[in-house]
Amino acid sequence: MMEEIRARGCRPKIALFIAGMGVGGAERVFLNLARELCLKGFSVDLVAGTFHGAANLELLPAAVRLVDLKMNRMSLGSLRLIAYLRREKPAALLAAGDHTNCLAVLSGILAGTRDRVFINAVNMISPQLLMVSQPKRWLFEKFIRFCFPRARAVIAVSEGVAAELKNTFSVSPGNLKVIYTPIITKELSTLAAASVDHIWFKEGAPPVIITLGGLKPVKDQETLIRAFALVRQTADARLVIIGEGDRRNCLETLINNLGLNGYASLVGFKENPFAFIAKSKVFVLSSVSEGLPSVLIEALACGCRVVSTDCNSGPNEILRGGQLGRLVPVGNVAAMAEAICASLREEGVTTCRNEDLIPFTVESSAKAYLKVLLGEERPS
User: Fold this and answer.
1) All domains of the chain, ordered by start, with CATH?
2) Mean pLDDT confidence for 41-70
3) Which of 172, 227, 257, 355 is deepest in the core (most CB within 10 A)?
């Protein structure tokens, strides 16, 4: 394929495929990757099932082409993706998300371009399977076991995700790569330095504990709120929860029942959460399951102390077994409260150095992706 492209004198086209361009971590990562690949001189298509609710698209270079499949059903999305692959013939298509990955592989098979389809495994699959009915679980497992081995390569975002794919879903180690996602951008420090218009971040105010993520069961903000109630017994602090989701009413009720009104706040979606994180004393990740939590890396880059659950994948790798932040058992309220209090007592700079974060920069990550997708770093 690459020889064909070189012979035509064209720039290699790379397509990035995601189900929807919302406001989550996976979407931010694809935006970062699309921009970096474009700046390196590649032709880039950002292909999405829908762009409804998309944020930060203005950060993309004008040369990045947005392809909206207007996908409201899986079957329709597959037909449109097949048509795209046959028409555009990208040198590589990188998909992300378990259902999206299966759709990409099946479409590649039917379009005759399977050898150009790469899939990005961004989360642990097993915890997600436990949340669906037995028939759906059985069907989804079959899909994964059929589709994943048929991709040109499976790119896992962490060693933990790679281990699950190899041990549970029989993905061949030879077809499995680990590449940390492109999270830290050159603009992050500027965003972190921006001012915050909130009374809790005024000079002389009590320290702020902060978290960022969708308000959904897997993020387990309930444990964080209960831990904060214990923290409040010995420390004057505030809790800020950034994000939206179906659990908002439940979390507001819990805050009220624990007598935390005026001390804990659900502030909703923030276009620039990094300004809030940089001005907080402690960032807490309370998740039950992760792949490679972008926000934990971003918190370190913002100079914030971190406390994280030692869930199945991601935090232990990022924090180097606890060297760069405190790890606590999943769902353990007392341990989380103790770790937060210890972090609140610390003064001075954090132990995280710039070199610790290099693998998570867009430059380093894009270089690694290109080696897998095209076998090179710059277009020919």
Assistant:
1) 2-182+361-373 (3.40.50.2000), 188-356 (3.40.50.2000)
2) 86
3) 227
